[in-house]
Amino acid sequence: MSGPDRTTALLDAAVARIGGARRPGQEAMARAISEVLAEPAPLLVQAGTGTGKSLAYLVPVLAHAVEKGQRAVISTATLALQRQVLVHDVPLVADVVAERTGLRPQAAVLKGWQNYVCKHKLGGGYPADDEPGLFPADATTPDPQRTARAASTLGEQILRVREWAEETDTGDRDDLVPGVSERAWRQVSVSKLECLGTACPMLAECFPEAARQAAREADVVITNHAMLGIAAAGSPNVLPEHDVLVVDEAHELAERVTAQSTLELSATVVERTARLARRHGALGVDLEQAATVLRTRLETVPDGRLRDGLPAGLADAVTLVDAAAREALTALRGTGEAEAGGRLMARAAVLTLTEVTERLLSDRIAQRRDVLWCERGRTGLDAPRLHLAPLDVSAPIADHLLSGRAAVLTSATLALGGTFDAMARTLGATLLGRERGDDRTPDVPGAGRPTRPAPAAAAPASASASADGADADDGRPWRALDVGSPFDYRRQGILYIARHLPPPGRDGTSAQALEEVLGLVRAAGGATLGLFSSRRAAEEAADLLRSELDVPVLCQGDDQLPTLVRRFAEDEATCLMGTLSLWQGVDVPGPTCRLVLIDRIPFPRPDDPVRSARSEAAAAAGGNGFMAVAASHAALLLAQGAGRLVRTMSDRGVVAVLDPRLATARYGTFLTRSMPPMWQTTDGTLARDALRRLATGTSRPAGRTATA
């Protein structure tokens, strides 16, 4: 039996074990992965909601790992999904593989160092963090009662962690239920730079080291995109040696790598580092003076992108910080009288500072490889901070994550505008096998390279178009496959575009758009998820619905997001209005969500430093900067947002976009081709009639709105 055929047999056994039925898209995905494991190359797989992609990649990957002795790393977008894969999906597939092959795959979970409790720190081997955090930084006189309450709560949390640390086998923060605050956890964990390593007196009981040892012995390692970001940023050794990489929710990978590689510098950070250095063996005086100069210089820098790099005065201040930090670093190399843990904490902070200053003073900005900007927070009143982010992360992804191994990159949204090309460039797949240098043109989407739509191919039952990026006629080193979705989107959903509305402006939601929101929600009898471009827009819609309709209306900010989503799911009549946090990851199947409202096309802010720089780079290379960056960003979010509607075979409803540009602008077709293929209309009466029929058929009419 060939590899793909054997994979199909294993998949059937796994699906039967959970009482499911064969899904053609799931089978096509598993077979394609089996082929890539035999002939390593990057494979991009778009697998729509309901495909069952976890089993589709776990079956061939786990079987390959135990039979070929090739370790696999599987990365998820969140710690919660990481836990689900490890606790639920992997054991099921491991049982099937063991029954059919006689070899049972061993799995391990791997997270960042600070996700584990440090027993040495709990035992007093490190000083308490020098953190101002009990009252606002601009407060002149702290409130004694508030400070005492905060200290008492912090002490109680640390005591609970200390008791738990004696019982847990993992030391993993996610296993501590209920959890503790971020501040409390910082008091019981250390970073890799702060760890004493082999000099630690409690090395034999070290939880993060035990997790890494388990990963080095496992057949499959379950990790998360944050760890991939660390690896891509230049620390590939954070992951064990492996021959196979699977990235679930791969559309988020580039942003995670960008975030991991983004640095920050402020006078406050330098001052805090100076205090820590002084406490543990370095004078820190020069560093404090440098912080004062930096603060003065930063106050003169306006918010926004610094296209020409550091201004002269600011460059001098950063140079001063760099020199002072290196002197402190030298002083901290001695043994001194300070405890080893304290010296390591100070040394880690100073070392991090030198890495920031070194990159700020390098020629990466002049070479257009880094983007530099200054900001003062959301209110504009905070102390100014410098930020430095890479213009392009495709090269580090290609070099540190994809090169030399079989790689599967999967998500429900990888083909933007009907082609995988943009995502393949963003994820570094196009760079494999090419000669590159540091002076190369950034490989941003649309940077003057030809694209072509994914060619249609015969597809199984519910699978859609299939594409292969390794066609003999173009020599591409990557493959792509769209296995579609088991859902019949044209029968289950309507995409309504409110073409008659005025284009959205900068002055908030128009009166006409709010009236449209009211009419649609009234017709739906509630049961609405509102996805808005700003908190202000979400609150305006929520206030209107509360005043006009007799349905429960929740708004982001009323409570913690998981609580709001749970309340939304529990009551069919409830509406939930929110912003970007709700566009992805909200899974509320059934009649509770029969209307998804999107107020405008979610283009990035024009003043977004990184995206504006990437757009300029694409245009400079001969491409279309707007389509390469802004439109691709919007397409991805629209696909994710519209995907909140149909989550099961029985879901029915309407996605309503209140931005007429989706129907009238030239880029509208590119955006709608990125969304689930629902039946499309600009007829508001038709959309409202469909919603009324759905509301009438529910078991719980939404008060007076059911008869409106």
TrEMBL record:
Q: Where is the composition biased (Low complexity)?
A: 445-469
Which Pfam families does the UniProt record give? DEAD (PF00270), Helicase_C_2 (PF13307)
Q: Which reaction does it catalyse?
A: ATP + H2O = ADP + phosphate + H(+)
Q: Matching SMART domains, A to Z?
A: DEXDc, HELICc2
In what ranges is there compositional bias, type Basic and acidic residues? 433-442
Region (Disordered) spans which residues? 431-477
**Class in the EC hierarchy, top level:** isomerase
This protein's cofactor list reads: [4Fe-4S] cluster
Q: Where is the Helicase ATP-binding domain?
A: 12-310, 34-287
Please name the GO terms that the record assigns under molecular function: DNA helicase activity; hydrolase activity
Family, per the entry?
Belongs to the helicase family. DinG subfamily.
What is this protein's name? DNA 5'-3' helicase
